[in-house]
Amino acid sequence: MKEVVLGVTGSIAAYKAAEIANILVKDKINVNVIMTTAAAKFITPLTFQTLTKNKVYIDMFEEIAYNDVRHISLAQKADCFVIAPATANIIGKIASGVADDMLSTVVMAVKNKPVIICPAMNTAMYENIITQNNICKLKSFDYQFVDPKESRLACGDLGKGALADVNKIIFAIKKSIDEA
What we know:
With 180 residues, the chain is of the alpha/beta class. The protein has helices spanning 14-26, 39-42, 45-52, 70-77, 88-96, 102-109, 123-127, 129-140, 166-179; strands at residues 3-8, 30-35, 56-57, 80-86, 115-119, 144-145, 149-152, 158-162.
């Protein structure tokens, strides 16, 4: 069975990650979800746990009752690692090598596996030169991106920054798994 690690960050688009997880599970792909603390403010871990039938990871320092180093084992067993939605914050952390939570730590441990990043943020944040430089930097390291779409955003602005269509994200995940 193929394995996907789905990272979910603190964006209003976090609810769409549940649809991504659900589709992957229905397609017989095992999904392990890692949420940031901010993501859990938008959608509960129980939603993902119910859909995937797997424990949801948030706290890097929770007491463990197993014999492996979880952030390493999750990175090693994944056929594909996807972050949807990906905030400017997580993109900046990864581009800077910051590993200070479960999600950023696992991403840093991914080796020779596809990492797909699906940005979702306000247009001004997405177009900010720092965010764009971070995206370019990650692309130069072979991170893949599913670009956001132009839409009416949660703040009311119209512009590029809305999470890409779920089907487009699913297509990118399946393509990367097939090529792996």
